[in-house]
Amino acid sequence: MVAVPTRYVLVGVTFTLSMLLYIDRIAISTARAPVSEAFALTDTQFGWVLSAFALGYALFQTPSGLIVDRYGPRRVLTGIVALWSVFTALTGLAWSFASLLIFRFLFGAAEAGAFPACARTFYAWLPAAERGLAQGINFSGSRLGAAFALPAVAWLILSAGWRGAFMGLGGLGVVWAVAWFVWFRDTPEQHGVTEDERAVIAAGRATAVAPAQTAISATALFRSSNVRLAMLQYFASNFTFFFCLTWMFPYLQRTYKLEALQTGFLAALPLLGGALGNWFGGGLVDSLYRGGRWRDSRRYPAIIGFLLAALGLVASLAFDNALVAVLCLTVAIFGADMTLPPSWALCIDIGRRSAGAVSGTMNMAGNIGSFVTSLAFPYLLTMTGSTTPFFVVGAALNLAAAWLWTQARPDIPVEGT
């Protein structure tokens, strides 16, 4: 029997992390009705509950990435998962609108370092030719986790109440954190992988993996045109995708007068499309890279993805049927998620030993997009009486991001990395 390379097992483990990350994240959207009823929240107030998470998540991206680069993903990711699980459980103990805002902000802040830690892990553990698909698999876990969570958490809330559901999810995260600390090591050498596999990883990595002894400067980060590009395009990507995690469920439920479980299954379809987009985009990244087309391997999957996202958002406005509208949104999320593997691969390319800080900075900008989405949807609806402006704005952002990717240069690292 042929042994599975340890680095492939690692990708599978980060896939489960990504699933857990988004199960915990989307639970609040699924619980909108009972949470809003418990605290008498309006739509705009609930929008602030959603955006409190996104704000905390965005603000702590770069600091978390710097910490990961300095202390390694084993210890940092253990702490991150344990901490966010505590705040997941505390969400179930909220007693007021203010406490709910605080717990969701801290939950977002605690989650912030998860994907930068994965990026730093992949830099140490994966040859460059395997990073695109690995990122696709990793992020597909978040989409599958969210898709699973929509009907599953809806059922759990019906069975245990929304407070019990959040406390149960918090306990699950603590178990994952303990297992990660016991199993994982920061480098293949520390983990004790075979000599042959270490040679494959080292040959494809080509640069040192020692922790960054000094933090990369903010000046170096923001001076890089690649970093600025990554930030702007990721704002557009998250603006599109975060709709699925926040307003998709209540939007479908109210627009088409659906029951909770029925809404959960329909709202899961775009997330499944996102998983497929990650796999397809990641595979395309690695295929082009192996063909000697480094720049194209980052540019083309992202450009195609953003064009599909714009098309899907606009097409969804043309149909009154719930299923057809959701299928159009599935195309949009498929496209938006095609952009994730090249985005994170670009951060590893240009960040190297500071991949955590670079990817965290990109993710910070992206989650400012998430913050805007949480508030833009209810406020635009209140101002115009229609959901159309939200989807038009999203399509315009995606077209702009597609153009930005024509300027990407993965072969130019950030100064000092």
Task: Quickly describe the structure.
This protein has 417 residues and is an all-alpha fold. Helices cover 82% and strands 0% of the residues.
Number of strands: 0
Name of the level-1 CATH class: Mainly Alpha
CATH-level-4 superfamily name: MFS general substrate transporter like domains
Rg over CA atoms, rounded to whole Å, is: 20 Å
Order of secondary-structure elements: HHHHHHHHHHHHHHHHHHH
Q: What is the helix tally?
A: 19
Stretches where pLDDT falls below 50 for ≥5 residues?
Answer: none
Give the fraction of residues assigned to helices.
over 70%
Overall outline: globular
CATH architecture: Up-down Bundle
Count of discrete domains: 1
**What is the overall pLDDT average?**
86
Q: How far is the N terminus from the C terminus?
A: 41 Å
How much strand content do the residues show? under 5%
Main β-sheet description? none
The class by helix and strand makeup works out as mainly alpha
Structural write-up:
59% of the residues are buried. The chain is mainly α and 417 residues long. The chain has one domain (6-407): MFS general substrate transporter like domains (Growth Hormone, Chain: A, Up-down Bundle). Helices cover 82% and strands 0% of the residues. The mean pLDDT is 86. It is globular. The chain is built from 19 helices and no strands. It has helices at residues 6-30, 32-39, 43-59, 61-71, 73-91, 97-111, 114-125, 131-183, 188-191, 195-205, 218-223, 225-246, 248-255, 260-290, 294-315, 322-338, 340-351, 355-384, 388-404.
